[in-house]
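User: I've been going back and forth on whether these two constructs are worth ordering. Before I decide, could you fold them both?

Assistant: Sure. I'll take them in the order you sent them. The first construct and its structure tokens:
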Amino acid sequence: MTKKVVILGGDGVGPEVADVTADVLRKMSLDLEILEPICGEKAQAELGNFFPDETRKLCDESDAILFGASGTTSGFLLAYLRWGLDNYINIRPIKYYPGCRTPLKDAEGIDFVILREGIEGMYPGREGDISLLTKNLPEYRDILGKSFADYGEGKFAVRIITDSGARRFLKFSCEFTLQRKAAGYKGNLTCVTKSNVLRESDGLFYRIMEEEIKLFPELILEHYYVDDMARRILRFPKDLNVLTTTNMFGDILSDEAAELVGGLGMSASACIGGTVPYFEPVHGAAPDIAGQGIVNPTAMMFSAKMMLDQLGMADAARALDDGIAAVYREGRYLTHDQGGSTSTTKFADAVMKKIG
């Protein structure tokens, strides 16, 4: 059955990587209905609305959404895609493809996944003036015995971890790791917290992790504090399999890990679990290079590959992955961030030729 896919360019370089990826998908002659409604900066300029009602309706009715980048105008669009659609699972693969630029002498074999809880924690920003806490929580004392009034003027941010939110995410983390084990990967699941300091919120997260893993005796649970995990990603990247963590920690660690395998231009993600899944490169709008035709579209194409897998088109996903991998192995058509001089469109053309 034909799947309906909405591709949203968004802001900055988003439309550039979206356009070439849409072109590749169309040339692959898949059973997809690909729609590219207006949104972001272009919609704001032409219609006075960065996310028109017609565009939102198409998204609500689609099987999947492919999103380019969020910038100054489309922050609310990103909120709709993640929180509005309840996409609480963020999957960020970290895999080395021979030929890409890496700071390591030997990156061959790096292949792990960071699972990031997508809608709780520090995101979206729940902030305010400390005076609000002073007024509404006058009796509260922290571990130092201080009240909020003792801190004087300033701002606060609230971090939220719920039992239900953590449990559904960590259950998925176990199921995901079990699927990787069945595919030949390790069976270790690494939970990353800062529960030695954030004893209540991260303490709850890890206690639920311990409960859920008991239902999966085939798996091995590991636990590291986030500062130690940041070091381990650099020191032992080939030993890692699946990392599961909270929203902000996952955001930071995945950006760090991406640098080992070519940078954000290579880093894709899937945001699933809600009513309509969406897929996006980890990089942002990059306004400094927007419109120059030099942005690397690999992350967007890898996101499209993840989308195809989610839609049950495994053969097409594999063909796209193989095509991208072949271009990097050959090394003739690499973009500027990878040490080459190939334009965005010519890179996409090279991938398409490898796919055939």
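The second construct, handled the same way:
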Amino acid sequence: MKNVLIRIFWPILKIFETGQDPTNYKKSHRVALNVVGVLFIFLSLVSVAAAYAAGGVGSLIPVIIFFCAGVVAVVVGALGSNSAVSKIWGTK
């Protein structure tokens, strides 16, 4: 199942894969990335409720931004290699 998901999300993963062995990778980086991703997705759901209450189309911009950031963080955190997680945090 993981291989199927990696094939589906390869365009996202390809951006962050470096192919090098990370020197500053910690397991907590992956956990923090998954938590941040879930929080961004939750924030996008809250933004949907606020956008619906406001009734404006312009309020959908934060929904799209928060949801995309959350999906990228969860995909890299769950399916990415250690080097991809290190790259998204900016460590080398």
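Notes on the second construct follow. The chain has a mean pLDDT of 90. The chain has one domain: 28-92.
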